[in-house]
Amino acid sequence: MRGRRSSTQLWLVGAFLFLIGASGSSTFSRSQATALFPFSAGGKYGYIDATGRERIPPTYDWASEFHEGAAIVGYRRGENWRMGYINPLGRELTRDRFDYAAPFSNGRALVGVVEAANAHHMKYGYIDLNGKLVIPLQFYKAESFSESKAAVANEYGNWGYVDKSGKRLIEPQFFQAGPFSDGLALVADQAGRYGFIDTTGAIRIELQFNGGTRFSESRAAVVSDANKVGYIDQTGHWKIPAIYEAGLPFSEGLTAVKEKGRWRYINPDGTPAFSQTFDQARSFRNGLAAVKLDKEWGFITPAGDWKIPPQFAAANPFDAALTRVVDGVYGRHQYVDRQGKIIRPFKGTPALAPANVSTTLLEAAGIGFGADGGGWELTDIKLESEPANAVVYLIPRRQWETIPELANNDQALAPFKFEGGNTPASGKVLQKVYYALFEYKGKRLPLKVDVFAGKANVYKIVFPAP
């Protein structure tokens, strides 16, 4: 398989993984009323709108989100993939197919084609929104445009920058180079020291750090010699001391940092935004942030209040009216709105993104900043009762303990009805602790259920004789 050339660079520094692509904090400029979302049905991908209505039939082997009015679609041929682009009407921007494709940014999309003379090497160039190759396939490595500039590398692995016409702006000279943001770009030398340059290529902040992120909201996270993360301003002065294990770029006035294994949100001056801490945390998008607590993802407001309580096995940011999540019982991909309402479940298991496409979509291996850590493998479960034919509701422990009077609330219980049917009932669910609520002839009895791999996971309840 050919290597992936992502337009979102991941720079690994010791134990720290930092996301520094423009896609890490950008929000869609498209109208939410006309936004389209990729969905999977029967092994193919199509698009729905924010109401869940199908707009483009599922005919593609894979499909990405729309960026700047265009989306990447994939065509699989055996073990190989070829990538193209469509507009919101489902029409192809170009009939050309590429071995690598990235989302549009600043009116350009990074594309790559394997060299005819060497199947292990790829050349990169850029197309415009008409599908025209406006910058020829000539670069040995390249990144997406940001602030009308793109980092590109020559055959010697040296990075420089070009403008949207392909004209050289900054000569190749850096060992690594990130996107421009707030007029500065993170670069590194061969010794692994990081700093920032301006749009002329001049060093604005000396190459002195062990790693870092792009600037966002006048702050950049950088790694000190002690391998701790802090934040500097555009003059290179420390604004938040380097005391954290990891950190995200600022977004919507807050950022998430990791301290003593826990994630919290802080203000631009370094003070805590609120007291709650999390297992994992993402940047705020459109007023909500995805956070993980006790192996389940939910969404909070900037005040730290729950907007959608923890219940998902994985979750993407709210870049638009809907976001993609993995439900917390059966591990299914689905779209939910900002109230947590299911808008459209996927049918079948969606295909993972091809290795030669850059995407921000949810993937099985993890989402967003760093790895999710898994924890959502499916395991067999069997639920029995005496007498048989009892209705079963399978409720994750958190919802059982936090939804008031759940056992007596028919409306609230309805979404938890076990898909395996009446007892004896069986199926596959995520590994976690549940409460199974058995109902027989008007009586309801709960049973705590610990579902884990390596054991039978057979549970039975006996209703007392009348």
What distance lies between the first and last C-alpha atoms, to the nearest angstrom? 65 Å
- SS-based class: mainly beta
| Estimated share of beta-strand residues | over 45%
Shape: globular
Average pLDDT figure: 88
Arrangement of strands in the largest sheet: 28-29-30-31-32-33-34
Q: Note poorly predicted spans.
A: 1-33, 359-374
How many beta-strand segments? 40
User: In this structure, how is the largest beta sheet organized?
Assistant: 7 strands, antiparallel
Percent of residues in helices comes to under 10%
Radius of gyration: 24 Å
Number of helices: 2
Features:
globular; 466 residues; 40 strands; 7-stranded antiparallel beta sheet; single chain; mainly beta
Walk me through the structure.
With 466 residues, the protein is an all-beta fold. It contains 2 helices and 40 strands. The strands form 11 sheets. A 7-stranded antiparallel beta sheet has the order 28-29-30-31-32-33-34, with no helix packed on it. The chain has a 4-stranded antiparallel beta sheet with strand order 9-10-11-12, with no helix packed on it. A 4-stranded antiparallel beta sheet has the order 13-14-15-16, with no helix packed on it. Residues 1-33 and 359-374 have low confidence and may be disordered.
Describe, in short, the structure shown:
With 466 residues, the chain is mainly beta.
List the SSEs and their pairings.
Elements: E1 10-13, E2 16-19, E3 37-41, E4 44-48, E5 54-60, E6 62-67, E7 70-77, E8 80-86, E9 100-101, E10 109-115, E11 118-127, E12 133-139, E13 141-142, E14 150-153, E15 159-162, E16 168-174, E17 176-181, E18 184-188, E19 194-197, E20 203-209, E21 211-212, E22 220-223, E23 229-232, E24 238-244, E25 246-247, E26 255-259, E27 262-266, E28 280-281, E29 289-293, E30 296-300, E31 306-315, E32 323-327, E33 333-336, E34 342-345, E35 378-386, E36 391-396, H1 397-402, H2 410-413, E37 425-430, E38 433-440, E39 443-450, E40 458-462
Parallel strand pairs: 35-40
Antiparallel strand pairs: 1-2, 3-4, 4-5, 6-7, 7-8, 9-10, 10-11, 11-12, 13-14, 14-15, 15-16, 17-18, 18-19, 19-20, 21-22, 22-23, 23-24, 25-26, 26-27, 28-29, 29-30, 30-31, 31-32, 32-33, 33-34, 35-37, 36-38, 38-39
